[in-house]
Structure formats: C-alpha cells, structure tokens
Amino acid sequence: MKTNNLILVHKLGKEILDSENMKREKRFIQHANVSTYDHSISVATMSLTLAAIFRVKVDKVSLVRGALLHDFFLYDWHDKTAMPKAHAYLHPLIAFDNAKKEFKLNAIEKNIIQAHMFPLSIVMPKYKESWIVTMADKICAASEVISNIKIRLAVSLLKNSRFIL
C-alpha cells in the first residue's frame, strides 16, 4: 500500500513537486536529518494511508496537495536569523501565504495548510482531509525524530563498545 500511495503522491502532486520552490525544500532540514521536501512527501503518503486504514472517503487530490504544501514556509527554521519568533505557531500561515502565491488552492487545501499544527495553531481543521493531514504530520514528525534518536544511540553504543565489528 505504501508504494502505491507514494506513486499516487507523485502523480497527484506533480505540479507542486516540479516547482522550483518545492525543490528548494530539499535543502532545508525539517526534523532530525529529514528534509522538508521528504517530510512533506511522507506526510502526503501517510495521509493516504490513514484515509485507507480508517476507510474515510476523501478528496485525494486536495489531501495530497495540502499535505505537500503544509510546510511550504521556504526557510531553514533552524537558522534563528531566517526564522520568525514563534515558528511553531506561525509557520502554517507563512506556508499558506507562500502556497497561495504560487498555486491555485481550494478551500480544503487552504484549511489543511493553515490548520495542520492544531491544537497549537489558531486555525482549526474544518474538513476530514485537514484532520487526516494533522494526524499524519504528527506521526511522521515523531517517527523522524525517534528514528534519529535510535541511530544516534546505536552509533554511541558502537563507539563506546570494547568490541570492534
């Protein structure tokens, strides 16, 4: 299912994935060692997976496009000089402003982008697609961070081991 969903993300999100600004996101780290670009693709893929698991009929095009654009803020949030204060709260609105300049967005896509940080954001999810992307984003972010912690722990254990493999 994951491979089929990844193919569907690339098909439905082609316009976004081919854009120069989306390609720029490959240079920005989102969580741990995962780029914002890869994180966005993971969130879109996970969103399709969750919709299938919960058997929720969704607008797949809006779901994928909104998921791909949910973190379209276009700066390195680790660089304190580039990022606004309160990034966690404000980046959905910045992502929305960037996305609407570059793409024609429908109401579902707008709400997905603006509400994906709920309950931290001031905008609440209004559509089932928005709720799904919000959940998918939390799942992917947690997975990315935990995966990095496991890798660092394994490396640390190997470095401190008296045994050489």
Task: Pick out the low-confidence regions.
Answer: none
Might you state the CATH topology name?
Hypothetical protein af1432
CATH architecture: Orthogonal Bundle
Number of strands: 2
- What value does the Rg take, in angstroms? 17 Å
For the terminal residues, how far apart are their CA atoms? 36 Å
The quaternary structure here is: single chain
Pfam family, one: HD
Protein name: HD domain-containing protein
Domain HD: 36-141
Organism: Candidatus Nanosyncoccus nanoralicus
Q: Overview of this structure, please?
A:
- The chain is mainly alpha-helical and 165 residues long.
- The protein has a single domain, classed as Hypothetical protein af1432, CATH 1.10.3210.
- Helices cover 64% and strands 3% of the residues.
- It is built from eight helices and two strands, in the order αααββααααα.
- It has a two-stranded antiparallel ribbon.
- α1 packs across α4 (36-53) and α6 runs antiparallel to α7.
Key words describing this protein structure:
165 residues, HD domain-containing protein, mainly alpha, two-stranded antiparallel ribbon, 8 helices
Summarize the structure.
The protein is mostly helical. It has helices spanning 2-12, 14-17, 20-24, 36-53, 60-69, 87-102, 107-115, 128-159, and strands at residues 29-31, 34-35. It has one domain (2-159): Hypothetical protein af1432, CATH 1.10.3210.
Topology record:
Elements (H helix, E strand, L loop, with lengths): L1 H11 L1 H4 L2 H5 L4 E3 L2 E2 H18 L6 H10 L17 H16 L4 H9 L12 H32 L6
Antiparallel strand pairs: 1-2
Organism: Candidatus Nanosyncoccus nanoralicus
Pfam family, one: HD
Protein name: HD domain-containing protein
